[in-house]
Design goal:
single chain, 810 residues, mainly alpha, Rossmann fold, 4 domains, 5-stranded parallel sheet, two-stranded antiparallel ribbon, 68% helix, flat, P-loop_NTPase, AAA domain (Dynein-related subfamily), coiled coil
């Protein structure tokens, strides 16, 4: 399974649902940090478990049928020992698993305790709300009583008026009586009114006292409950924050464990396939060896029977000759032979009857001695063969003889091939005499177009109007009719980056125009360009530059090397030249691009690329010492980068030395001027002169920008452990003035440097604290205030907002 598919699996979970079993925020999936190593050991033990099963199968299949194979018996013993070790590890694994389950249960208990405290706090809040409702109801009752008293007073006043009206109508009938009754009524009403006023005043005093007392008591209770609630809430918040941090750390380790498990499954599958193939191969080899051993055993048994027969013959001969040694038998035989010869000589001279008898006797003795001699010779030969057999087996001698013959044949073939290769090399060297190892570079030296200088735009450059014109020329390609939209801020940043560094890194998601921007800028500036597609397998500079083949005496010149040489030809000597490294982080740039990263830190005259250990002839015209090539000042290396599971991260030193741009997802469209007249290519010297002029004019602004970043240093260092060196100050003195001269402002330039050089290091860090991020955000907004940089256009603020959102702080 590829790295891409693994990371895609990581994204399939639903992070917003805390109960989702695949959600890394689910507490049930959390592991304790100190047991991460133990979890990895569980993976290793799982692999051993699968291996042990297959090993038992291999032992069962490959078990020898005879007791004569010591190697196989040893292998079986080792397998049994491995099985015992595995059983011990399995028990240890079960113990560790129980510990992990216990720790998980403790974690769940802690979470349950926090939930219970939250429920208790909610109950306390409900009690506070109930008390508030009771207080409000009592106030309503008091208001109703006051309203009732007001109604009674109004009724009495109405009755008084009615009475006065009635007395007026009857005045003529009994004035004196009415006056008396009226006086009585007035006195009665006055008494009632006074009494009512006194009672009302007394009631209001009592009511006010009770209200104040009740409000005071309720206020005290509420303050106490709110204080307890706030303390409990702060305690819960601290515990929740601590738990969230712990969950985040464990979540990361859990995801890593998931990836390790997936990788383990793949390794296990590969190992199983390899083991099955190995078992089949070993089984076949074992069966072949077993068959050979059987044949050898049959031959050895036959040879043993033969030796036993000869041994019996030898024992019989030894019995016949007694305890005499073979030398004594030989001496006796020689003596008998001598006597026989003498007898023959005497018989020749004295052929009488006695001589014939004696001769017959001697002949019989000779035959007996000859027979004994033959038997003793056979016994001696048998003893010699037995001695030789003890040193080396006959079959092994035959095998060695055949191996020797095979090696001799192979050696003869290799000698013939070596001779042919020597002839081929000599022929190639003979043909290569007088031919340069760098044919492509030599061809550029002789090509008229590359050796002819072109007319250049030699007018003074106003960076503000130049950047606006450049945006229009980038937006429209007359040849392809293609339209590209980039913001004026991006154009200014790219232009200022040319003044700051010869290494650019363009980042962003796929389809944001990372590769198109430098190529369109080259077209608009009249610059040269070369597009190099980086491959995932590149490991050193030979993959980028090319390599020398000693047999062919030829240097395989890569597209990169040819572009590097072309940039120095007269056609481009005083023009800009962009080498675009597409998908630069598919491999580690710090490996294949290391020589150039180091060279760009040197003075221009010291930027040298060594291609050969010794000088070559004929060498291209632009080579120095016949083996070195200069890295010219008119060349910029522009790398594009995606950040996903198929790529690697840049090293901090690469980020620090480069100009970094983060292209947005969407670019705002604008009206394109399609009637711009063509112009000559921009002169490098004039562009550098305009950069230098801006840097002198806006030097104080650059110092202010650096001072602003220095002001953030204490906060960045104390809470985020971020620092920087003198290189940043040099870069800002080159970058900030050009941005301002091109129509930007101080905050725009400072914001870009702050975001790409420092705050980018805060992304996706699990030790970020929301309160620290908020403090930094507030501090930056205060510093940017009044300079027309909104939160939407500020790269620094967007980075901090992203981190706060990731941590659940909106």
């Amino acid at each position: 399974m590829s790295k891409n598919s693994r990371r895609n699996k990581k994204r399939t979970s639903t992070p917003n649902n805390p109960n989702n079993p695949n959600n890394p925020n689910n507490p049930k999936l959390e592991l304790d940090q100190k047991h991460q190593t133990e979890a990895k050991q569980l993976n290793d033990i799982a692999t051993e478990q699968a291996t042990e099963t297959l090993l038992e199968s291999a032992i069962a299949v490959g078990k020898p049928t005879t007791a004569n194979s010591d190697d196989l018996c040893t292998a079986v013993e080792q397998a049994k020992q491995a099985q015992h070790i595995f059983e011990a590890l399995k028990k240890e694994t079960e113990s560790e698993k129980n510990k992990l389950e216990k720790q998980q249960a403790d974690l769940e208990a802690r979470i349950s305790g926090i939930k219970e405290r939250e429920q208790k706090q909610q109950k306390k809040q409900q009690e506070i709300n109930n008390i508030k409702e009771a207080q409000q109801q009592e106030q309503v009752c008091l208001q109703q009583q006051a309203k009732s008293l007001d109604e009674q007073e109004q009724d009495i006043k109405n009755r008084e008026l009615n009475a006065e009206a009635g007395f007026t109508q009857q005045r003529h009938e009994s004035l004196s009586q009415l006056e008396k009754e009226a006086q009585i009524l007035r006195e009665t009403m006055s008494n009632h009114r006074q009494k009512i006023l006194e009672e009302r005043s007394e009631f209001e005093i009592i009511l006010e006292s009770k209200q104040n007392e009740f409000i005071k008591n309720q206020e005290a209770k509420r303050n106490k409950l709110e204080s307890d609630y706030q303390k409990e809430l702060q305690k819960i918040d601290k515990e929740s924050l601590s738990l969230l941090k712990e969950e985040a750390k464990l979540n990361k380790k859990h995801n890593q464990l998931k990836w390790d498990i997936e990788s383990l499954k793949e390794d296990k599958q590969s190992f199983n396939e390899y083991l099955e193939k190995s078992i089949i191969a070993e089984k076949t080899e074992f069966e072949s060896k077993l068959h050979s051993e059987k044949q050898r055993l049959i031959a050895v048994e036959a040879y043993r029977d033969q030796l036993e027969r000869k041994l019996r013959t030898y024992e019989e001969a030894e019995r016949r000759i007694g305890n005499r040694s073979p030398e004594e038998v030989f001496q006796e035989l020689e003596s008998v032979r001598k006597e026989r010869d003498e007898a023959k000589a005497e018989l020749a001279t004295r052929p009488d009857h006695n001589a014939q008898k004696r001769l017959q006797k001697l002949e019989n003795l000779y035959k007996d001695a000859q027979q004994r001699d033959y038997e003793q010779q056979q016994q001696i030969q048998a003893l010699k063969r037995q001695r030789d057999q003890n040193q080396i087996a006959v079959t092994e001698l035959e095998a060695l003889r055949e191996q020797k013959q095979s090696l001799k044949s192979s050696n003869d073939l290799l000698q013939a091939a070596l001779e042919d290769l020597r002839k081929d090399v000599d022929e190639r060297i003979r043909r290569a005499d007088g031919v340069s190892p760098f044919p492509a570079c030599i061809a550029m030296d002789s090509e008229e177009a590359h050796q002819t200088k072109t007319s250049l735009h030699d007018e003074e450059i106003n960076l503000k109007t130049f950047s606006e014109d450049l945006r229009q020329r980038v937006a429209y390609d007359r040849e392809t009719q293609k339209e590209l939209f980039y913001s004026q801020r991006d154009i200014r940043s790219f232009l200022a980056g040319l003044a700051m560094s010869h290494l650019h890194l363009l980042q962003g998601i796929s389809g944001t125009g990372k590769t198109s921007l430098p190529l369109a800028m080259a077209r608009a500036l009249g610059a040269g360009d070369g597009l190099i597609e980086i491959q995932a397998g590149w490991r050193d500079r030979h993959d980028l530059v090319g390599h020398f083949n000693a047999f062919e005496r030829r240097f395989y010149e890569s597209e990169f090397l040819q572009a590097l040489y072309l940039a120095q030809c007269p056609q481009y000597q005083d023009r800009l030249f962009f080498i675009v490294l597409d998908e630069m982080n598919l491999s580690h740039p710090e490996q294949y691009f290391a020589d150039f990263i180091s060279a760009l830190e040197q003075e221009p005259q010291n930027r040298i690329l060594t291609l050969m250990e010794s000088a070559v002839a004929p060498a291209p015209d632009l080579f120095t010492e016949g083996r070195k090539l200069k890295i010219p000042e008119n060349i910029w290396f522009i790398g594009t980068a995606n950040h996903d599971e198929t790529t690697v991260d840049f090293a901090p030193k690469t980020y620090d030395r480069a100009h970094v741009m983060e292209l947005p997802r969407h670019q705002e469209q604008f009206e394109i001027n399609r009637q711009l007249s063509p112009r000559h290519p921009i002169t490098l010297s004039k562009l550098n002169k305009s950069f230098k002029k801006a840097q002198n004019k806006y030097r104080q602004e650059a110092e202010k920008a650096y001072a602003f970043i220095e002001q953030q240093g204490e906060l960045l260092d104390k809470h985020f452990n971020l620092g920087w060196g003198n290189r940043l100050e040099r870069q800002m003195k080159s970058y900030v003035p050009v941005v301002i001269a091109a129509g930007g402002n101080l905050v725009e330039a400072t914001d870009s440097i702050l975001a790409t050089k420092l705050l980018r290091k805060l992304k996706d860090r699990y030790d970020n604290r929301p309160e620290d991020l908020k403090k930094l955000r507030s501090q930056l907004k205060t510093g940017f205030e009044g300079l027309q940089l909104t939160e939407k256009t500020s790269q620094s603020i967007r980075i901090l907002d992203y981190e706060l959102h990731r941590l659940g702080e909106d």
